[in-house]
Amino acid sequence: MATITNQNVSDFNSPNFPTWCPGCGNFGIWAAIKSSLVRLNIKPHEVLMVYDVGCNGNMCNTINAYGFHGLHGRSIPIAEGVKIANHNIPIIVTGGDGGLFGEGISHFLNACRGNPNITVILHDNQVYALTTGQTAPTSDQGYVSKSTPLGAIEIKLNPIALAITQGATFVARGFSGRQDEVTDLIVKGIEHNGFSFVDILQPCVTFNLVHTYPWYRERVYSLDENIENTEKYDRTNLVKAYEKSLEWGDRIPLGIFYEEKDKPSYQDDLDQLKDGALVNKNISNIDIDSCFDDFM
Ligand SMILES: Cc1ncc(C[n+]2csc(CCOP(=O)(O)OP(=O)(O)O)c2C)c(N)n1
Ligand code: SF4
Ligand SMILES: [Mg+2]
Description:
8 helices, binds magnesium ion, eight-stranded mixed sheet, alpha/beta, 10 strands, binds iron/sulfur cluster, Rossmann fold, two-stranded antiparallel sheet, binds thiamine diphosphate
């Protein structure tokens, strides 16, 4: 049953409308993020969105909430820093596959290990879209683009397998053509105490002419559908989750691959936060001048 809230999606609209290409998969993600905040009854001033750079990051001008537009690939450490300063507000990162897995791969890995209580949403279009479709770490091997005219030599990076094996405690995948499901996943990701990662398959209708809406629609299915009438999918089983993460091709699973509920988050283990958020502390009587002595 839908939660009753006193706000609606339009509260998160800014005066700007996105400039994405008509039909871009980012529209579905944009709508799902706003719907998930409404479902959780989070108000625009009660959340921080940290945006990476790229077509995905242009969303920063179109959501009415606190926002920080970071450098390409650096959105995760910004979010982790803010979460330490004020661990009482939800922090949501949105980034592209180029930013999070090219420039920012080390930040992603270390966030998986550290379990900070933030939510990372991946706009997974398998290209560097804003810079006109160059090969990204998630592009198919053999992918032909301006940067790999003879085809990409490397194998593609698997975001779900990577997150699961590096310790992420909530790992899910959605498809931006199934907006209600994406909303559900983002809601659950925000509710999760720890590092939550939601990989969203996002058609780039201009540069990725392989992974189109029809291509995905023919292949995607929900892990919870149990169409093969086998055992119910157990999202607490790490080994099974890893096995499922390798399924890609004729059939592509969607839903929550892995969830570990009881592991303390980075913020839970940080002694300095035990007696309240750092931003609420009175620092007027703390002398920090000595910190600068070496530089004077
Ligand atoms: C450190 C750095 N490297 C490269 C760029 C140039 N650049 C801007 S957007 C972009 C592509 C973004 O691709 P992705 O992160 O996948 O986002 P998308 O546009 O696909 O949403 C690149 C290479 C940059 N701004 N900063
Ligand atoms: S280039 Fe691709 S990702 Fe960027 S706005 Fe257009 S369709 Fe969307
Ligand atoms: Mg991309």
